[in-house]
Amino acid sequence: MADMIDLDDPKSVAAAALACLDLTELGDAATEAATLDLVARSSTEHGPTAAVCIWPRFVAVARTSLGAEAPVRIATVVNFPSGDLPVAQVVDETSQAIADGADEIDLVIPYKAFIQGDEQAVRDMIRAVRVATPLPARLKTILETGELKDPELIARASDIALDEGADFIKTSTGKVVVNATLEAARIMLEAIGRAGGKAGFKPAGGIRTVADARAYFALCDEIMGPGWVSPATFRFGASGLLGDILATLEDRSPGAEGEGY
C-alpha cells in the first residue's frame, strides 16, 4: 500500500481500503463453511485484506486454512458483543484464541459498567487481556461508541484504553443501533493524537462503500496528517465493503460479479 492516498482517485481509495480491511463474519448464525469462504475471499487479485475477523470457535480452522505465514491476519472477538463477561472468563477466551492461532484480539470493554461510572472495570479488563495478548499479537478495544453516546464518555474511554496499552481503539461491535460514525471517529482520532499517534483506529459497522471509506480517510488526513493511514494504524471492520472495493478496482457495478461480498 502506498504511503499516500489520493482522495480524488476512487481506485486509490479502494486499494487503500482493501489493504486496511478486516473482512468480517460475526453473524449469529455463522458457520465453519461461511468462515472458510470468508478466508478464501480475503485474498483477492488486487491483494490481500489486512485480516479476517471471526468468532473464536473458528480461529483454529482459519489458521489451518491460511497457514502460518499468510499475509492475512486472523482477528477474533472476546467479551463480545455484550461486554458483560467476568474478567477471568475473557482472559480464558483470549488465551485460547491466541493458542488457536489468532493474531489480533478485538475486546469489548465493559461499556455498560463504564456508563454507570465504573472506570476501574474498564481498566481491569483491558489490563488483564493485554497481558493475555502478548506481542506480536495486537489488542483492539471496542468502545461501543453508539451506546456511550456522550462525546466526553467516548473521549474518556479512548484515553483509558490507550493508557492501558491498547494497540487500536475500535468504535463498535456492529450489533447495536448506532455503530461507526464520523463524529465518534473524530473524538477517537484526537485521543490517539494526544497519546502520540502510534495506536491505531478501527471504525466498524455500517461502512459499505468506497465513498464511506473515503470520508474516514479524509478525517484521518485532517487529524493525523497525510500518510498516517496504513494497515498498522487503520482498519475497517466490515463485511459488505469488499464488494464495492472490487467493483471500483474492476470498473464494474457492485451488483455484477462479486455481489454479496
Quick structural gist:
This protein has 261 residues and is an alpha/beta fold. It is built from eleven helices and ten strands. Helix 1 packs across helix 10 (210-224) and helix 9 packs parallel to helix 10 (210-224).
List the helices and strands and how they pair.
Elements: H1 10-19, E1 21-25, H2 32-41, E2 43-44, E3 47-48, E4 51-54, H3 59-66, E5 73-78, H4 87-100, E6 104-108, H5 111-115, H6 119-131, E7 138-142, H7 145-148, H8 151-163, E8 168-170, H9 182-194, E9 200-202, H10 210-224, E10 236-238, H11 241-249
Parallel strand pairs: 1-4, 1-10, 4-5, 5-6, 6-7, 7-8, 8-9
Antiparallel strand pairs: 2-3
Helix pairs in contact: 1-10, 1-11, 2-3, 4-6, 8-9, 9-10
Compute the gyration radius: what is it? 17 Å
CATH architecture: Alpha-Beta Barrel
- With strands numbered from the N-terminus, the spatial order across the biggest sheet is 9-8-7-6-5-4-1-10
Distance from first to last alpha carbon: 21 Å
Shape: globular
Which structural class matches the secondary elements?
Answer: alpha/beta
| CATH superfamily descriptor | Aldolase class I
Specify the number of helices.
11
Strand fraction equals: 5-15%
Q: What can be said about the biggest beta sheet? A: 8 strands, parallel
Order of helices and strands: HEHEEEHEHEHHEHHEHEHEH
